[in-house]
């Protein structure tokens, strides 16, 4: 019976400890409770278990607090994006398969069937967006990308007369 009583106490303490993990700032109360109960326990094994739980309480508390406050996830964006639609200047129709070049990065993309394009995760600087399509005059726009912003840069192309 005493062995099962000891296991019951350990199980109770572990359950209490796990429940305390749900609250970020409960570690001081749990640690204090464990520390107060070490002195009234007569079994050396049980004191050892409580002492280890007391130490783990503060280690786990520090890890959780650090994980919440010391993460590498920044609350701000460090990159920007540029997107837009390429259209025919006279008809307003979107132009698919137009080549959109982003300088100075050298990135290049083809527009989709809706004339849309998008460059993401761009470093913060000034870019020139140049659009070319067979049968059309090239056109370009200059844009300064700022952190966390997605700039819409729509460009119209003029068809070359034949």
What does this structure look like?
This protein is an alpha/beta fold and 162 residues long. It is built from 3 helices and 8 strands; from the N terminus they run H-H-H-E-E-E-E-E-E-E-E. The strands form 2 sheets. Strands 1, 4, 7 and 8 form a 4-stranded mixed beta sheet that branches. It has a 4-stranded antiparallel beta sheet with strand order 3-2-5-6, with no helix packed on it. Strand 5 and strand 6 form a beta hairpin. It is rod-shaped, with a radius of gyration of 32 Å. The N terminus is likely disordered.
Which labels suit this protein?
3 helices; four-stranded mixed sheet; about 160 residues; alpha/beta; four-stranded antiparallel sheet; rod-shaped
């Amino acid at each position: 019976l005493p062995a099962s009583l000891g296991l019951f106490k350990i199980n109770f303490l572990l359950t209490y400890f796990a429940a305390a993990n749900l609250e970020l700032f409960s570690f001081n109360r749990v640690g204090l409770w464990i520390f107060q109960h070490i002195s009234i326990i007569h079994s050396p094994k049980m004191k050892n278990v409580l002492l280890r739980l007391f130490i783990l309480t503060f280690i786990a508390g520090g890890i959780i607090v650090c994980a919440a406050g010391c993460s590498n996830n920044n609350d701000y964006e460090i990159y920007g994006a540029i997107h837009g639609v390429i259209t025919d200047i006279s008809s307003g129709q979107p132009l698919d398969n137009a080549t959109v070049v982003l300088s100075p990065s050298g990135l290049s993309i083809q527009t989709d069937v809706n004339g849309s394009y998008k460059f993401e995760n761009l470093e913060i600087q000034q870019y020139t967006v140049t659009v070319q399509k067979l049968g059309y005059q090239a056109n370009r726009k200059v844009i300064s990308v700022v952190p966390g912003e997605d700039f819409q840069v729509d460009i119209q192309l003029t068809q070359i007369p034949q």
